[in-house]
Write a structure and sequence with these properties.
disordered C terminus; four-stranded antiparallel β-sheet; alpha+beta; 348 residues; elongated; five-stranded antiparallel β-sheet
């Protein structure tokens, strides 16, 4: 509901408008206690920030240093009226329980408790900021141009630094901060699992996987193994599923045998068995060929495979098959896509 509320507000903000909220010191203290309940680290205990980005706009909380009592007194003095949301009194919700049952007891015992909460969140913010400055410099030594994480030397580094690098790398993907439990799983079950394992961790709508010496952050895609696309008119481009772009016949693409007039051109995304590719003297399993070309397992069923009838011709951009049928002519096909990856098997 909170996400829906902010989305609704965002839609009604003008281009140059800034959203101001009435969050105060009591709200910040509630957030801190909730973070402690969840077992959050310094980032969670930092509480709400004075400034945040709200999509392409900004959200500012100018009253975070003021207590609820001070604001209420000022509002009454200036004859302001406000709406009361009666759901705020339902102590079945954790925040309301903290607000009505916990904080009054703490304030009665320690009158400066709210102020000290604010000091704690400020100190944690500073510590997190310093840590991120360090991590921003450090992580440059471990990522490639596609922002994949090189883990080759992680076994030589302190566990604490490795975990923070993983966390920082995930946050760079603009997703919600992962819990320390998830970071621990990535460290133990993905990075330092057996070499022949194929481990993965799902985070929201994404998956973290290891391939050779890298961690990859992959957006989850629908399975397209069984999809069959017929390319009847090669003078027009053919669109591919899963935002994989399209194929087009032109003069810049990969050179492959041209089909015979009677053959149906079709695109598939799965093929098994042994094949003989150009430049080789014996057949090999598809799995071995993918490995030779450094194609990660999860991407193998996303690469368009060109068939003429049931004859496998080419994994576009990677290899061409030596087929028993003789083809006299050739043509060129380009796979145009927006996949940001530095692997050599992708072509545009």
């Amino acid at each position: 509901m909170r996400i829906k509320r902010y989305n609704l507000i965002y839609k009604h903000l003008y281009f140059d408008e800034i959203l101001l909220t009435g969050h105060h010191l009591n709200d910040q203290c509630e957030t801190l206690i909730l973070a402690l309940k969840r077992g959050s680290g310094p980032t969670g205990i930092s509480g709400m920030s004075k400034k945040n980005n709200l999509g392409e706009k900004k959200i500012i909380r100018p009253l975070l240093k003021e207590t609820k009592k001070e604001l209420k007194k000022w509002a009454q003095k200036n004859n302001l009226t406000w709406i009361k949301d009666f759901s705020n009194y339902n102590i079945n919700h954790d925040r309301n329980f903290i607000r009505h049952k916990i904080i009054p007891i703490l304030e009665k015992r320690w009158p400066f408790f709210l102020r000290n909460c604010f000091r704690t969140t400020t100190i944690c913010k500073q510590e997190v900021k310093l840590k991120n400055i360090f991590l921003e410099k450090k992580i440059k030594n471990f990522i490639n141009s596609s922002n994949d994480l090189n883990i080759k030397k992680f076994n030589q580094m302190p566990k604490e630094i490795v975990k923070e690098l993983i966390r920082y790398w995930i946050l760079s993907k603009n997703v919600k901060a992962p819990s320390y439990k998830i970071i621990k799983c990535i460290y133990k079950e993905v990075i330092f699992s057996k070499k022949d394992a194929n481990p993965k961790i799902i985070i929201q709508k994404n998956t973290i996987r290891r391939y050779k010496n890298f961690l990859y952050f992959i957006k989850n895609q629908e399975k397209i193994n069984n999809i069959l696309l017929f390319w009847h008119d090669t003078e027009k481009k053919i669109n591919l599923p899963n935002n994989l772009g399209y194929l087009v016949k032109n003069n810049q693409g990969i050179k492959i045998p041209a089909p015979k007039k009677s053959q149906l051109i079709n695109i598939r995304f799965q093929h098994e068995g042994k094949i003989l590719i150009l430049g080789r003297d014996k057949r090999r399993k598809m799995k071995k060929i993918w490995q030779e070309h450094n194609v990660p397992p999860w991407f193998r069923n996303q690469i368009p495979l060109l068939f003429y009838d049931d004859y496998f011709i080419s994994a576009l951009g990677i290899f061409t098959v030596i087929n028993e049928k003789k083809y006299k002519n050739s043509w060129r096909i380009s796979w145009i896509n927006k996949i940001k990856n530095n692997n050599s098997f992708l072509f545009y």
